Amino acid sequence: MGQTNECTEPTKHLNWVRLPLMKALRYFFQYTIALTLLIAAIGKLLDNRFAAGLFAQWQIFPNWSYLVLPLIASLSELGLSLWLFSGKALPRAALLSVIFHGTYTLLTVITLLRGIRLPDCGCFGILYAHPLDWVMAVEDAAYVFCSFVLYLIAKREREDRFS
Q1: What is the DSSP string of 84-143?
Q2: Calpha distance 61→68 (Å, rounded)
Q3: SS (H, E, C) 42-61
Q4: pLDDT grade, residue 52 (50/70/90)?
Q5: Is residue 135 part of a domain?
Q6: 56 with 63: CB under 8 angstroms?
Q7: How many domains does the chain have?
Q8: Is residue 68 part of a domain?
Q9: What is the dihedral of CA 59, 61, 67, 72, to 10 degrees?
């Protein structure tokens, strides 16, 4: 009865380091992703016609969709951003962010493989010109990775809270 479990005792001592580190990582990923999405949404919503012109240069979607798609993308980014900022159902929001950024990564790679390079991808609308190139594809993939790490951390926190 008075014995300590040698397997769990070292882990217990490391919790004072692990828990604050995980919380800091969660906040960093959560707010970085949310802020990036918010800036992207605002940049496109400020001038939807400008964003539509840039989307057209990607040459992926039909012509009739170029006014609608930037608006849908912007409102989706805005909604996901606000959801991430709220922290409610964070594992689900993070998983949606994985899907969202995964789609952006896929579209970027498809466009690049077709030989299209642009001085401005339109990701941030009128706020910031960001080139459509392989660096952007890597950045998009990094957001997928960060979103997945956020999902794992948020899921773990949720499990710890309810166990």
Answers
A1: HHHTTTHHHHHHHHHHHHHHHHHHHHHHHHTT--BS---TTTTS----BSHHHHHHHHHH
A2: 11
A3: HHHHCCHHHHHHHHHHHCCC
A4: confident
A5: yes
A6: yes
A7: 1
A8: yes
A9: -120
- For range 60-70, the mean pLDDT: 88
Please report, as a single letter, which amino acid is at residue 162.
F
The domain in which residue 28 lies consists of 9-161
Sequence-distant (≥ 6) Cβ neighbours of residue 51 within 8 angstroms: 43, 44, 70, 74, 122, 125, 126
Burial 20-55, CB ≥16 within 10 A → b, else e: eebeeebeebbeebbebbbbbbbbbbeebebbbebb
Q: State pTM to two decimals.
A: 0.83
- On the question of pLDDT at 37 being above 70, the answer is yes
In a domain, 4, yes or no: no
Mind listing the pLDDT tens digit for each residue in 141-152? 999 999 999 999
Q: pLDDT band at 18, cuts 50/70/90?
A: low
- The number of angstroms, rounded, from the C-alpha of 50 to the middle of its chain's C-alpha atoms is 23
Between CA 48 and CA 37 the distance in angstroms is 16
